[in-house]
Amino acid sequence: LGEAREVLGLTADSSPEDARRAYRRLALTAHPDKNASPDATERFQRIQDAFTRIQASEESGRGGGSDDDDEDDDEYDDEYYDEYEAFEEAAFMFMFAFGGGPPPGFGGQFGGGGGPPRGFGGFSHPASEQCDCRDCRAERNAFERQEEARQAARREAARREAARKRAWAEERQKAEADLDSARQRAREARKETEGASGAATATPRPTIQKAEQLRQRGNKAFAEGKYARAVSQYSAALKEMLPARDGKVLSNRSAAYVKLERYDMAIKDAEECAALCPAWDKPLARRAMALSGLGKHLEAADAFEAAAAKCTDSPDVSRAPQASSGISAGGSKAKAEYVRLAVAQREAHADIAAKAEEARRVKAEEAERRRLESLQREAEAERARAEVAFELREAVAAGDEAALERCLASAYRHGVSKPDVAAAKAMLKKLASAREAEQAAARDQEAAEAVATDLSTLLDDPSATRSGLKSALRRAEAAGVERIDSGSVLLARARERLGAKAAGAKEAKEKKDAEDRAAAAAAAAAVAE
Description:
529 residues
């Protein structure tokens, strides 16, 4: 049962509804019709077997497995506890001889464990004193080494135990395989012997009785709604009948598979039953029910009609045995029921087709609505784009910088053509350059006016020196004072004032030079006398 839960991805506390949901989810993804992987059929079969086993376990009210499985589990538990007691005794003797606490997992009768037992190689001082003398440290170190050795021994014992269990499992699998092979060879030999002797029914009587008992158990489980258990019983009955096959059991198992929604297995059993009993209507009806479960309503209707064709027109439901299979066809009531089911399947197919057509129509209308809405959105976007482009061209023509910035932002959002955007950006750049030029001219004007003011102040100062006038004149010429109002007049006054000062300075120098020469001549005359 644990393997079945693992296949379905369940835990031990999963509910039957969780198992059903997991089975449906995995069946949808692993079905060979929807999964192209080469192992899809095998994987789908494993999923179905796992779900059947879980259902059988739930129906029987046990945790899982069959009676044989329970006996195997009891046998394994006895063996496990014998080994556990032996290991427990060995661990106690190890503690008695070397001291120390019990290994992990043996905290029951040995106590909490943790140090050597009192009187068997324990510490010289109580643990509560926390003695740190040399002897106590040596004893603690020795105990730690002993503990490491015990852990290593436990690991080695666990490794050997795991290896022993693996070897035991391999030997058991090999023995089971050999036993199955021997049984198969025995069945083949029995079949050859029966064929040589010409006996048509050589199955031992006890085997036939057991198969019949299993079939009756399956019928009872089916009547109680325990369909997974019914499948298990029918399968066991078919196994007991080997190498022969029974059409009734196959038909009943097919019906149980239909109840479990394992429609492909139901179809397989129904087809095998139809091959064994070609004149019987029930395998065709079983196949029709399975096809209906798969949603193949037209094929199900054809199968129901074929089943109705197998029925006799006798008003009663008595069965006249047939020589070929021992099973007879149904009567007029069964035929009427099959006809009704066939009509219902065709109506279901028509209903599904109508719903599919309605869904296609709705989908087409929705697609057309979305297309029209898209066209409308595109038209509105184109109209908005044209309006923004017009406003952008108007702003370029007007040279309005604020309007240009606003229209450019809107143009980016609406996807206006690149030439219009480039023209607007060029105009913005030109307007920015003009604004900067104006600002630079205004700054130059302010600087020139300031220099002119300084020069005028200096000209009005009678004590202004020639060097000061010359420096102020240079600054005024460099600042372009001539561009401002009265700038030229101010420069002319400064030059005139500077020329007058230069002429005055020249006259003063000449006068001083003449006086120097006269003084020199007087001095020379005085020396000569």
